[in-house]
Amino acid sequence: MRALRAAAAVAVVALLALLVWDVAHSSGGKVAREVDKGEMVPAPAFRLPRVAGGGHISLASLRGKVVVLNFWASDCIPCKQEQGELNKAAAKWASRGVVFLGIDEVELRSFAQRYLQHYGVKYQSVADGDGAIAGKFGVTGTPETFFIDRKGRVVPPHVVGSTAASQNSGSLDDGIKRALSA
To answer: What CATH code would you report for 2-181?
Structure first.
């Protein structure tokens, strides 16, 4: 009986992964590809529930501000490794009108809430429960970070992996500066 349940769980996870991949590589997902080519593209609209507290946040409500959009998950090791840097950058850039927004991907809200509390995350995070927004952006894993200018356009760079990793050194500040000057 356990083997049957395990097989069913694996099948569900595989189908979900296939769905996210399909959205990212067919009708959606053009954002990451275009930004990686050096182009600015309109950010896909979304309205998602807050991970902690009530209510929703829409990207439209942040228009006029630079937004650092970070896709993460509570079980993601590189997400944990970069969280300190994100917290410091969010505090550093707040006075310049830069807003950090985390998007928690496809997990139980209780796990996400514990992550936010454990890592002292002060900026807002929303829940992308079905992965649809990640698919629209072309996210292929966590963490991934996008930069949105005041006009609602995603500007390069698009950071795949931890912003704290040596190969991405300086990318967080570079992306914010580029979005501020766009």
So the answer is: 3.40.30.10
